[in-house]
Amino acid sequence: MGRKGFFTDTTVCIGCKACEVACKQWNQLPDDGLHFTGMSFDNTGDLGASTWRHVAFVERPVPLQGQTTGVGDFSWLMMSDVCKHCQRAGCLEACPTGAIMRTEFDTVYVQPDVCNGCGYCVVACPFGVIDRREDDGRAWKCTLCYDRLGEGMTPACAKACPTESIVYGDLDELHARAESRVRALHEQGVTDAYLYGKDAESQPGTGGLNAFFLLVDKPEVYNLPPDPVVPTMKQRGAWTSVALGALGMAAAALGVVLMERGART
């Protein structure tokens, strides 16, 4: 089957939200009320149990690199966010029931008939993607359209994207396409362009993402963590600290005993 994933080029996203609609329609997800947050023109909030694709509208008080506008220093950034299907997936490692599995396409999938709603996966995701649904308590997130992949079809969001901002395919081919796109943007003067989460070398805390992005500003601007780390990667350091603490306490106790014996003699 090979490793599959998404490459999302934010520089060609127009914020149409066709990906959001296609995702909800195919996966039969409920709407989220369509309320404006008061922070932007976005009316679907963020990723959650019933929103597996979300287009963020980022309003910046700076122009796009190499461009000038007639309204002063201002620009919009659009980004279609989704589950990253991490190589080291915190949700998968934290799941105690085996409900979360890695598929034959190297994606991360939640089996709803096995999930018991414990929520360990929710706190283990460094991106805040996976969430529990209020009506049934179980955890839900993007499946990368696992059912469509099984039939040789393109995921609904990528199929609906009119600008090819979202591209689905073999990871190796996506990497080559993304690197070529970055080089082209640099040649055009957009030297701020870079790839976020392409591989383990660029993002060791997750081992790289199967859904990675081309950005032109800091990750925080897009509401992405600058240095995401799967919680289990910190276990070794935590247990080392505990062991060193225990050894210190034992050494102190031994010292007290020896001092008392010395005082008696």
Automatic annotation (TrEMBL):
Span of domain 4Fe-4S ferredoxin-type: 4-32, 74-105, 106-135
Keywords (A to Z) from UniProt: 4Fe-4S, Iron, Iron-sulfur, Membrane, Metal-binding, Repeat, Transmembrane, Transmembrane helix
Gene3D superfamilies: 3.30.70.20
Record-annotated membrane-spanning stretches: 238-259
Superkingdom, natural source: Bacteria
UniProt keyword Thylakoid, yes or no: no
InterPro entries with a match to the protein in the record: 4Fe4S_Fe-S-bd, 4Fe4S_Fe_S_CS, FDH_Electron_Transfer_Unit, Formate_DH_Fe-S_su
Main subcellular location: other
PROSITE patterns: 4FE4S_FER_1, 4FE4S_FER_2
Subcellular location: Cell envelope
Protein name (database record): 4Fe-4S dicluster domain-containing protein
Source organism of this protein record: Pyxidicoccus parkwayensis
